[in-house]
Design brief:
heterodimer; A: about 400 residues; abc type-2 transporter like fold; 2 domains; B: 16 helices; 5 strands
Chain lengths: ~400, ~375
Amino acid sequence: MRQVLNIAYYESLHVFKDKIILLLILLVPALYTLLFGAVYFSAVLTDIPLAVVDLDRSGLSREVVAAFKNSPKFKVTGEISTYEGLQEGMKTGAVRAGVVIPENFEKKALLRRGTEVLTVYDASNLIWGYNTRKYALEVINHFSTGRTAAYLAGLGMTEREIKGVLDTVSCNLDVWYNPTYSYTTYLFLGLVMMIIHQICLLGVSLTVTREKDRNSWMQYIGAALPRWKIFLGKCLPYLVINFFNYVLLLWLSARLINVKAGGSMGLIVLLGLLYGVIITSAGFYFSARAPNSLQVTRYVMLLSVPLFIISGYTWPMTHIPGFVEGPARLLPYTWMAEAIRTVTVKNLGFGYVRGAILALSALSVLSVLLAVNFDRRRKPPRAGGPVINSGSGYPQEGP
Amino acid sequence: MITQCLSIMRREIFYLWRDKGLRWILIAGPLLGILLFYSTYSRQVLKDIPTAVVDLDRSGSSREIIAQIKNSEDLEIVARPGNFDQLEELIKQGKIVVGVVIPENFAENVLLGRQARVEMILDGSNMVYATGATGALLKITRAAGARAGIKTLVARGVQPDQARNAYQAIVFREEPWFNPTLNYAFFLVVALALNVWQQCCTLAACMNIIGETGLNSWRQVKAAGISRFKLFFCKSLAHIALFMLTVLPVYVLAYAVFNFPLHCSFAVLLLFTLAFAVALHGVGTLASSISRNAVDATRFGMIIALPAFILSGYTWPLEAMPQFIRHAVKILPQTWFFQGFNFLTFKNPGWGFMSDYFLALLIIAVACYGTAALIFKVKEM
């Protein structure tokens, strides 16, 4: 054990001596979390700029306009009053939605001659698009109910009778887990898990390449030390730092960014530990195989976007084809992101994350086995011709 | 002058080609990106959201509601659990997103004019599902209410025409502009591939200065007396040309093979991408100028490039971000590029509007190259 601790101590010294890597693994995760927290702080879209083109200017058209004005989700801009203006405003992003009330609207509506109000919304960004559509439908439903009530009152029905008719079928929409439709609740912990994934991978993937860059890896592979001791000693500091980051980022998310983060503490800890073991072992494995620190840094950096998109965390797995889903299921992020959502956002217990825990456990064993059985042979740099950055060195200024 | 410039460019291309890792990243990264994202979003539109219905009434009225759900292209009934507990379990297991419970005596209550309550449950944890499903449910709610209300009114002796008029006084028609089918692939695939592309380009741009000064050959370059400006200008030209070459297959695949909508001309899109490539290269060069070695340069460049897409407002809109973030992210070229890319490809608002975006990218480029030159000068001294 002393040998493992000695290796861990020297690895920690490397990390503490390299100010940039120290900042990267201790400060950048928290900074990214706070930055994304600020970006998603509002959580829901409100004050959607809406243009009203009222070509009728009648009592009824003003009622329609008032219905949209009274919605806290829309902000009616008074500067646009023509259809051409609406087209231009939508093109430049000055407005994201519009209501067009045609000429003779009231007259035709009263005579039941078939007239319609046009609601348009900007679908070039589907976050705008779907939210605006939902808000507009809410306003329309509310307005239509009011119109029906007024019509029935005109037929001489009492308020109680009207209520009875309107409530004949009441549909109660109950939104579970995220009743305010908060984008922060939906997305944030997925981003946090990706930050942890990338920063940990970036740190640990340098553990062997750093030695290769300095020609000191020979000392490890030539020493009378079993592989597992080298692996454990090298990875121990990163396991600790990774778990520290995991706890810190979850705490920041819950406390400062008001992300919904409930659920069983035991499950959260277990998931964090498994996730940390997989990433750390995988990082060590990549590091042992990579020629130098530059190459491994480059590859690791590029992983975040593809892993996030194919994980099913945003675009759902039900709509992802099998040949993408299959490889995605072999990745720890896919399981972790879904499990952390199930535990923290949905507040569900072990039974609902059993599959994810099993998959993460299997991946842990696999990644540790791969990492422990690293190749002890040191391949010499290729001879002949200039090898630029794929060789054992990379450009760096002299001391 | 031109011969020397061409020699430097040729040498730079040779160096980049010999860097096997970077070569494959630049050639394969953006291409793999667009193919992977196109596959992921191959269903393109979010329809058929998994739905379960608990019909405790099994009447004509309840079947009408179920028919409405079936007719909605947004929802797909995938389960018919026998009771609420089973439905709850399906939602918890993530097997369904929407649950509808039609209570016992539903038809009888409607007939007698008593209140009948249909429970609709929605898993809101994934907003892609939730916003799509809510729209569908709101439409069903309105239609179901109207249908039942008309029946009640007729049962109470109101003329059928009057009863229908009570519910159909005003028709609202919705029209999504610029992306009429609410197609997620149109919205995201090219942008995500360009995000990968800009990360790959950043990796290359970060080598601009340190790739020279960090090698022993730098002494030879200095001794040869080549103008530093000429050297780095020509290197940058080679890099930017390469960036444009690597983005071309992405655009060809997107707009010629996958037939994604493109509302501006291809030339304008390429010109705008060129402006961004210059600005992005400036940022990479700046990261390169302050670094001790190539690894640090890569880290600095990528610390900016990695979160840039989220900060750009391409998905979560800039207008919804706090004001200080909204202003701060404008120093990143990615913000101008992804915003401008959305405007150009979906709306094509014209040169008058887009000129600000070109100008911003050029200002960022000048600021980054200028600062990098200053830092380089100070280090040389």
